[in-house]
């Protein structure tokens, strides 16, 4: 009895051992195979590499994920000497080699000894689809969500079963919704019965949005007569919903354009609106603000890379100070001799604008300078049917904040009181003991400083080049004149009205004609109301 | 704005004419080369680089002993991005400074404005920028790409390799994009693309608010067919356009954008990480790997004393044009315009993409066409190139007005717009 028991356990031990050996061996063999397949990625042209990627994806082995990710990112290199393929990261001019399967560093090579495995768009699409399938079962819900979205965008009948398995095992609600849509999308291109397809059409139709529209339109082209009415109805339904959102989207674009106009014009509302100086160098103040941002980012990049997300916050006060100081110098040096002579002021400030442009061109070069977007200003999010980009949202918030601050300064502080007093009745203000020349200089500096911080914001959406200011000077004058000279609220309303008007005209008239129409409308409006939307009343106007 | 630009020009012209006059008193044993590129105003962003490139080429040539035993001397003028001023400055270069050849112009309108001057004073202009074609002039050599050397191969690539069926032709509103898009539209329709699958959009110069257009492109691309954007957007407007594309999440894998006016120089002002995979079609990329190019880049970086300076396609065009001119002058043994014009045709010099470029009788050159994808480091990676060289076709075969026209400046034809249907010189569309 005892003997038998011992024999049995020995037997089972042996079996386990054998099993272990086989598993281990297959594992090793599988790894060798994978390595050979990964090395083969370096051979041949794009379509051959794409075939290798598909073959790799068929193994379903999650170990190849890093290699594929590196391929898509352009970090996969082939060693020229022995045709081995490695993941790489650069360090001090050399490339650190990383084993594609184990992820261990295995040495460094000069970049000349390695050849990059080139990728193009169609190869990147193949890799993306392969990664979508491989990462569908990842323990990380975020990765699964991304995988599901990839499969949704590029549906294939082959992936259908994979999606269904994943769907059955899915626990996270958000991933599940996307997976259901991905399943529906894959179903549409598969050869499943029409009944299931009808349900799939309903799911996609309900999801709405441009991606669904794209899926359904593609399905419509190849659909038979039983499905056509369903698809057409779903498409019509999505388009109806989109038409509603499109109006909202236009309003949003208009607000966003309006906020840019407001930012560009608000400094001018002080120098031109309040002080009455036709300041042609206003645009160059905006440009100087943008270049200040560039310099700040450059210093941060070279010395304090960790602070990059704070670069705009640091640039704001600096831009205000720099452009404010330049404004102060211009007022004290030139403009104060020209008060009451608008034509000469126009020519002088315009001369200054040329000097500033060419100075910047000489110092920083004529080419565009790169100003990066901090991470919190990149990308977009969906709000219902609206796509809202973060940088535009922040610029709207920022424009309104600047406006509020300026309003507070003018209406609630002693400095604002003095400014208003001087512009309304210079001699009376002077008799009351206000140093009018000093107030003039400060007001001009304030207007210039505000233009400078507008430049910080505009550097996020436009070129930072010496010509930056030129593009905004006409628009700024347009806004101030349209809103009513001397009235901050007029500038606010004027900017947003012009922004929204422009964006509603653009889809129908095109960008070029839209702009012309806006100009014509403004000319007509000025004929009717020469003092703009909100005309100042009283004695100040006559003075 | 226009008045402003003009006055800018006048102001700078006054300043610069003094410097230019000083140049005229230089010794007589030099051969003078005119450089007509804007150093101020809106086009300075692109043209200043070309001025520097020319100065470098001239300096390098002088180190090698000059030309015909004489030193070369550069005469630089600044037409200040002001089109009428281009004509004045060209006249000044030719009649006051007595230059043997002029290298210059960027925009088509500046080229058109100097054409009568070169014709009247019988001098030579080398024009280095890709342009819309539909022109061939006796005194001008076009070293940039004609539409068949850039636009058409790019569209072919997208059609064949990416399976694109729906097209957005987006451009800035002026002559080059309008003519190129007209040619492309005719070409696409001849390839069986339906008119409703083509969307054409024009924007003003310096357009900075791309939200509506990018969302229109996204909408146009959601018709279930593979969509691509062919961009002839020029200059400053590109940066906000690409930023908006990146922010609205238009990825190159979904809707690729192929650009004809975006090179290494334009990308230098941009964070290219979100743009990886978008395309450009040129005849040269800085990333092209061959010894001649490596040498050129090294010399350029040393000349500008800036390790980050990039090279681009119009610079290569000047490189080719300058070397062709040197060779032609040596062949003719003189810098006399008529002799050089005759000697130019058939001259063949190495280009920087690893081959030879030849000047054809239509005053256009042969070039390879490269399609590159934008990389995260701001460079392009060649993903496709034409198997051989492409001959520049000045009169497009896809436009009804110009399909019967050819150009041949060799005797006895000596005609820039010969109509093969009527057998007469001076056909329609000149």
TrEMBL record, chain A:
Pfam families: BPD_transp_2. The chain crosses the membrane at residues 251-278, 310-330, 342-360, 393-410, 437-457, 477-501, 508-526. One of its GO terms (cellular component) is plasma membrane. One of its GO terms (biological process) is amino acid transport. Signal peptide: none annotated. InterPro entries: ABC_transp_permease, ABC_UrtB_bac, BCAA_transport_permease. Keywords: Amino-acid transport, Cell membrane, Membrane, Transmembrane, Transmembrane helix, Transport. It is found in: Cell membrane. GO terms for molecular function: transmembrane transporter activity. It is a multi-pass membrane protein. Belongs to the binding-protein-dependent transport system permease family. LivHM subfamily. This is Amino acid/amide ABC transporter membrane protein 1 (HAAT family).
UniProtKB/TrEMBL annotation, chain B:
Keywords: Signal. Residues 1-26 form the signal peptide. Pfam families: Peripla_BP_5 (PF13433). InterPro entries: ABC_urea-bd_UrtA (IPR017777), Peripla_BP_I (IPR028082). PANTHER family: ALIPHATIC AMIDASE EXPRESSION-REGULATING PROTEIN, PTHR47628. This is Amino acid/amide ABC transporter substrate-binding protein (HAAT family).
